[in-house]
């Protein structure tokens, strides 16, 4: 799972008493069956919209590689 911290407050919620100041994302992008011809545009739009969680798995074949390429160079991305 890759996480981008850009517009964190817009789509996250506090974790309560677990960790002071910590939050969790409310929405993410599932990357299963992302079409390779539009994947980069979809991921870019998600990042611009404040999405911080991208769900991937080895079974998704090339989507992890596409996601890593799209997030390369994005400030705050942890891949």
Q: Keyphrases for this structure?
A:
79 residues, alpha+beta, four-stranded mixed β-sheet, two-stranded antiparallel ribbon, 20% strand
Terminus-to-terminus distance: 7 Å
**Shape descriptor:** elongated
The order of strands across the largest sheet is: 4-5-1-6
Structural category: alpha+beta
Largest sheet data: 4 strands, mixed
Strand-and-helix sequence, N→C?
EEEEHEHE
Which stretches are low in confidence, meaning pLDDT under 50 for 5 or more residues running?
5-9
Number of strands: 6
If you compute it from the alpha carbons, what radius of gyration comes out, rounded to the nearest whole angstrom? 13 Å
Global mean pLDDT: 78
By DSSP (H or I, 4+ residues per run), the number of helices equals: 2
Query: Roughly what percent helix?
Result: 10-25%
| Strand percentage | 15-25%
Q: Could you describe the 3D structure shown?
A:
With 79 residues, this protein is of the alpha+beta class. The chain contains two helices and six strands, in the order E-E-E-E-H-E-H-E. It has helices at residues 39-48, 63-71, and strands at residues 2-4, 12-14, 23-25, 29-30, 53-55, 77-78. Strands 4-5-1-6 form a four-stranded mixed sheet, covered by helices on one side. Strands 2-3 form a two-stranded antiparallel ribbon. Strand 2 (12-14) and strand 3 (23-25) form a beta hairpin. Helix 1 packs across helix 2. The longest helix has 10 residues, at 39-48. The model is unreliable at 5-9 (pLDDT under 50).
List the helices and strands and how they pair.
Blueprint: E1 2-4, E2 12-14, E3 23-25, E4 29-30, H1 39-48, E5 53-55, H2 63-71, E6 77-78
Parallel strand pairs: 4-5
Antiparallel strand pairs: 1-5, 1-6, 2-3
Helix pairs in contact: 1-2
């Amino acid at each position: 799972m890759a996480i981008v911290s850009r517009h964190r407050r817009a789509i996250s919620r506090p974790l309560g008493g677990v960790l002071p100041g910590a939050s969790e994302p409310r929405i993410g992008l599932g990357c299963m069956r992302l079409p390779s011809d539009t994947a980069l545009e979809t991921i870019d739009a998600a990042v611009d919209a404040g999405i911080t969680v991208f769900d991937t798995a080895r079974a998704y074949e090339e989507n992890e590689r596409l996601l890593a390429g799209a997030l390369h160079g994005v400030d705050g991305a942890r891949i």
